Amino acid sequence: MVKVAVFMGSASDEDLMKPCAEVLAKLGIEYRFTVTSAHRTPERTERLVMELEAQGCQVFICAAGMAAHLAGAVAARTTKPVLGVPLAASPLAGMDALFATVQMPPGFPVGTLALDKAGARNAAWMAAQILALADPALAQRLKDERAGFIDVVEKVAAEVEGRDAERRGKNKGK
Question: Is the same domain home to 35 and 50?
Answer without folding.
Answer: yes
